[in-house]
Amino acid sequence: MSHCSPAQANLEANDVPRIAMLGQPNTGKSMLYNRITGAGAYVGNWPGITVSLSNARVTLSGRDVEFVDLPGIYDLEGFSEDETVVADFLKTYPVDLVIVVMNASQIDRQILMPLQIRQLGLPAVVMLNMVDEARKNGIEIDTEALSARLGMPVHLISAKYGEGYPEAISSVDEMLKVRENAPPAYADYDALRETLMTEETLAETLSGAVVYPDVPPQTITQKLDRFLLHPVFGLPLFFAVMLFVFYVVWTIGLPSQDWVGIITDWIQNRILEPVLSLGPSWLQNFVINGIWLGVATVASFVPLIMLFFFCMAAVEDSGYLSRAAYLMDTWMRRIGLDGRSFVMQMMGFGCNVPALMGTRVMRSQPLRLLSMLIIPFSLCSARLAVFVFIIAAVFPPSQGPFVLFSFYVISFAAAFLAAAIFSRSKQFKNTEPFVLELPPYRVPTLRQVWLRGFGELREFLHRATNFIIIGTVAVWFLTNFPTNATGLDTWGGQLGELLQPVMAPIGINAYLTLALIFGFIAKEVVIGSLSTIYAMSSGLVAHQIATTVSPAAAYSFCLFCLLYTPCLTTVATVKAESRSWGFMIFSLIVSLVYAWLISFAFYQGALLLGFE
Fold first, then answer.
1. C-alpha–C-alpha distance, residues 488 and 472, integer Å
2. What is the pTM of this model?
């Protein structure tokens, strides 16, 4: 089997055999999808991680086959948004085969899904994943008996380590060959609704085919949970783990900027400037100050962002973050949310967009809207780059990790405060019960951490490429016209000066104000625009900010950047997920006003206490 690039396939065309991958959350479905397709889908060890369709084409026995990774759901007849997405897909788009992925340790809780697939009239093969864990738990599985009762092939696999994978994928290939002349199948939901699945039906399917030990062995998960889920020490330990993550990012990632800086300086001095010197001076100014300095500044943060993604991938894949959601549920309920909202808040530290899409797992519309209102307060990777730049320029190196971690804590506190305020409104009242599966702890593999971290980095660079050049070019025009003007006399400087009556009370000068304006496009643009605004390299900009911006003003700037209007992509996602222009505009106004009030309270309080 050979791989090709992820397909931006037209799902309606179905010009090649189509295989849909289906399963409950936390069964390793997306991990198996990655192993098959090499597409690098988002994989994590918590429920609700897959919230949209991913599709890719691979070559299987010399022919193209399309694989579609459907959202993880619990019930094919459910009514949450992700369950509706799956039902609409199966009714609208024909499939040649369905791969049902199940957790081999939880067959008794997941057997309903292959039975439902059979009633839908869809050809299927069952993959019992995580067989290594089932074996450790003393579970015996007779695949032949289970296959006979389900009426479909059953295979034991480990998507993580590759055990049983060659045989399972060969079975998929054989089934496609058998069905080569058969038409693709649509789901018959009428037949499903006419069939009542009773507890007796499920028990008969498993009787004798799956045998559980009389006394389940005590697992490492149970031992760890006694400590990690402790009602007193659990939460402090979680925040200590996150502080350690930021400490690693700071102490290892920050020095890497110097290496990238050496490379970008060499490119500028040895290639760009000699080549551009042959042309007019305005062209050299435009390319160097309008494009290159912004791109080079953001590029210097790539190693740091990559390290952050890898650290978070390891924490996520271990199963620890779902424990954090469990620990936070009691506190979240007091402000109208639940543990799922905390999970989505954590997802927002990579990027707000997938976190907003992740709210589809919530059946309650008020809960979805309230969660979507607070998710943009998460300290996303783009903001992380801004904060590291400002903190490194203004604060002593020894204070850096703690100042950075304080914004992590504030992002939570700000989100919870906003939720507590707005949950009093009837529009945001939640009545949905909270159910969360706690997966076993797992040792993350280097392969999965790489796939997860590199996939996030790829998305970050994709967003940065799209927005940074546009943003820095716009900043260049505003800071270079009128042609004879400099500094605050330029159009950009005048715009910054115009807003000073609003921004000066929170300690933000005209230059930083202009950077924030362009940060609305994407937060990555903030750093790139600073290099363009000052017409300096990132090192000289850092020195300039260190000499002109006080620690209190720098902290206020970062506070405002953390809480104010998110990037355009996030705004568009809020509109798409809420299906409401009114809610999108409301969320924009809330973030702007909220950011100003928090920054004002901090900065003026710092001045009253004698800090500058």
1. 17
2. 0.71
Q: How far apart are CA 435 and CA 328, in angstroms?
A: 13
Terminal alpha carbon distance of the chain: 63
Quick check: 362 pLDDT over 90?
A: no
Write the single-letter amino acid at 295. V
Cα 211 to chain centroid, rounded: 38
CB-CB contact of 260 with 303 (8 Å): yes
Identify whether the C-beta of residue 119 lies closer than 8 Å to the C-beta of residue 201: no
Tokens read off for 472: 């820095």
Of 52, 54, 109, 114, which is closest to residue 82 (Cα–Cα)?
A: 52
Give the torsion sign (CA, 459, 460, 461, 463).
Answer: positive
In tens, the pLDDT along 397-408 reads: 889 999 999 998
Element (DSSP H or E) covering residue 152? none
Q: In what order do the strands lie in the sheet with 54-60?
A: 2-3, 54-60, 63-69, 18-23, 97-103, 124-129, 154-156
Give the H/E segment covering residue 55: strand 54-60
Residue 402's contacts (CB-CB under 8 Å, 6 or more residues apart) are: none
> What CA–CA distances, in Å, run from 451 to 457, 458, 594, 596?
10, 10, 36, 38
> Using CA atoms, how far apart are residues 247 and 78, in angstroms rounded to an integer?
43
Q: Measured between alpha carbons, how far is 524 from 530 in angstroms, rounded to an integer?
A: 11
pLDDT in tens, 433-481: 666 677 788 888 887 788 777 777 777 777 666 677 777 788 888 888 8
CA distance 265 to 473: 20
| Residue carrying structure tokens 């363009």 | 532
* Tens-digit pLDDT profile for residues 504-518: 999 999 989 988 988
DSSP state of 426: G
- The answer to whether 357 and 81 have CB atoms below 8 angstroms apart is no
Q: Which of 233, 432, 268 is nearest to 339 (CA)?
A: 432
Reduced to 3 states (helix: H, G, I; strand: E, B; else coil), residue 187 is: coil
Find the DSSP H helices in 334-399. Answer: 339-347, 352-358, 365-374, 381-394
Alpha helices in 273-351 (DSSP H): 273-276, 281-285, 293-299, 302-317, 320-333, 339-347
| C-alpha span between 351 and 322 (Å, rounded) | 18
Angle, helices 320-333 vs 234-248, to 10°: value is 130
CA dist., res. 394 & res. 404, Å (int) = 12
